[in-house]
Automatic annotation (TrEMBL):
Its EC number is 2.3.2.26. It comes from Cepphus grylle. It catalyses: S-ubiquitinyl-[E2 ubiquitin-conjugating enzyme]-L-cysteine + [acceptor protein]-L-lysine = [E2 ubiquitin-conjugating enzyme]-L-cysteine + N(6)-ubiquitinyl-[acceptor protein]-L-lysine. The active site is at C134 (glycyl thioester intermediate). This is HECT-type E3 ubiquitin transferase. One of its GO terms (biological process) is protein polyubiquitination. Coiled coil: none annotated. InterPro entries: E3A/B/C-like (IPR044611), HECT_dom (IPR000569), Hect_E3_ubiquitin_ligase (IPR035983). PROSITE patterns: HECT. GO terms for molecular function: ligase activity; ubiquitin protein ligase activity. Residues 1-142 form the HECT domain.
Amino acid sequence: RKEFVDLYVNYVFNESIRKPFEDFMKGFLRGCPARRWKMFLPVELQIILQGHRRCDWSLLQKNVKYSQYERLDQTIRNFWTVFHKLPEEKKKMFIAFLTGSDRIPGYVLEHFTFTIADPKVENPDEFCPSASTCHRILFLPR
């Protein structure tokens, strides 16, 4: 039985995926030569490629820039009060709304910034918040 289980596990995790993995590896190495990746530990490489899974939300708040707002404006204080009450999954959904990904890029965790801007609309109650994902700007009507 042990031999059967060992052979089966080897087949499922190694042999059955060998050809697709070799094809993937060939394509990956064509665009990203292996010598450049060897300087990273596997955990570091995963963070660089996928981004950070966890975020320091207080640090995020500290790094935000404001356009046509001040840090102590009532709209901003209300925003952060509501934001910090959200569950972790909803906060990640906000990051996805803002940037297009629910993860902070791997190389900028401490320096990740975004801007909260007033869209200067005539009737702010008729507008929902929107985002410019390319520039990481949240347009938050007053």
